[in-house]
Amino acid sequence: MAMLPPLVDKQYGPVPQASPCPEKQSISSDISLSKAPIPVVNKPCNMRNGMLGGVIVTWSLVLHCLGSLATAAAFLEWLDARHFYVEREQFVPLADGESIPLSTEWYRAPLHVQPDVTTAISGLLRLLAIIADAWAASLCWRVIMLLAETSKAGLNRSEIEWVASYGTLPPLSHFRLSLNPVLGLILLGTLTRNIASPILTGSVAWIPSSSTLKLSDSYTIPILGINNGSEASFDDVNTAAIRINLASILNTAWGTGVEEGVFKRVVPSAGLLNVGSTIHNITIPYFHVTNIAWLPTASTNLTSRFDSMTSDNNTFPHLREQMSQSGAIALLTNTTWRDNNTHGIQGTWTLLLNVVGSYRAHRSNTTCSLDSTVLAKDPQVPFQGDDGTWDADGCFAIANVSFIAGSGICEGCRVASNYTVQNTTELKMLGDSYIFVESALADMPVHVASLAPLLGSFPDPTNSIDNYVSALLVRSYSALWNAWTDAADPMSESRPITSSQTSNGGGGGGGGGGEQSRAAPPTTMQRSGALINRARMARSLISLRSASQAARDPTTLQSKYQPAFPTLQARINKTRVYIWLGIQLLLTFAGLAFLFLQVGSCTSHITDTGMLAFDIDSSQVSKPDRKSFKDIFKDIFKTVLGAFSKNKALPEEHEAEVMLKAVCESEKNAWKIVPVPASQDHGN
Is the pTM for the entire model greater than 0.85? Predict the structure, then answer.
């Protein structure tokens, strides 16, 4: 085979050549590179520039380590829970119907738009991959030369091809030499970085969210209600709509979920705002059920009270038919008192609840059993059958429900759904100083029985009867309070207080501690035509409030607000980030391990591996014959044929391997590859 021309080093001139290999020793595809006993050279490898060479060698390793740590910190500390715009030119709707544009051009607001962030992440990972590839490419040739220099038996041709092409040793080569397992693990640790990018990019979840825009004080939202120090008046048009507004508010603000500690108010002027907008200051109703005690039997006065209510067609029209529906509630008696500590009206209602599962099914089978009621998950609740005790069809349970009712100031209330504002923080209680607390409480017995068909506004009673009762009372009170507040008009003049108003406490009786009992509704409530004319209402609405009450009632007709606009919030899976970082640091630790292994070796002085394969003097080594696909298949066929013919002999053209050694010529700062004598021992 023809020999390669000798290599010429530009600095040192022609590289001395060894005698060529004998012709009979042609190299097959299984050529090996081996380190035989290194010949004596004039002086050892030059170590004076070791520190500088180490810096040059490890620059990519250090940069990759620092870049990985910085990337993980950016994901965990900067990107997590941060909001990003959805569009370049985004508009924020205001309460008055106008919109404010947000300028999000990349040169004005870099990394404020979600596509910019994903682009930056991809670019950063690509940059880290380039830095890691620079180290990995250098590492492959260093591993080859280290094994060739230090191993008694070197690398065969397939091992060189695997390391140079794929960055790892062949699977079986990991156990051939004592140093191979360690270097094989180092190469594998370096390769794992290639699978890590999807782990990091998959750690980011983009959740639809919203952010608020801070406006100047000149932007306000109108809130229906009464202003500080003003009394309220009502006209027939507004009060006539309270019944229909009650159902509308319930369907708008509430759903079937159980929402403990959540208080809501429907604000018509908030309909143009996006969900997530905040209102600086608004009064919302407060109602909390403190206890529900189920009674085993009904007393005579309760049945008499229900009979009198069903007979009062002016106040309770269709009560008998309404109470025959599943889930219908009638409020029979109400005892209330005021408590300065809670800043609200405390009370206990005795209510009647129809627990029948279906009115149609009960009409065909009037027997009351646990299976025919909604109490399958609450078997401890006692109930009475349809035995004529109650003047209605169904199965009935009785309970005493204790509650606290009032109103409170919500600061930073959030627009939770269309037209609906709900609290996100604890309310600043106003108690009963806000005039519509008594209005809502007095109206509840009139309207509660008719609310059972609004199935979409209350939880399912079959899941928990206590949750159903609590939700129905809380939501009906809130809706009535909301309806009366929206129907009120501020009064410019106050009317004189009558003696009856003074004796009954009036609207400013929030400080009284005496207990008073009354049936529901109060005897002062009368029905005139289609409207309810309540002396109780006049008592609480036209009385003068004290200065202390006005100070506790900062309700305004205008409030500052912050409109919301849609964003995407980045949520980071921290576990995936730590896994990605661990894989990246595996490359760092593998690199440090290799640098430790090559200490004292001539390999440590290779500062640039880019041209190492070209600069090596391999003139003494013959190239193996390159077989065509036809020859390869012919050899395979011969091998299979020999196996079937039980001829275990190898083909005649198979040639013994020729082992090679790598020699560092320190005087010329060059590497030389020469054949190993056939008598050389290649064991470990």
Answer: no
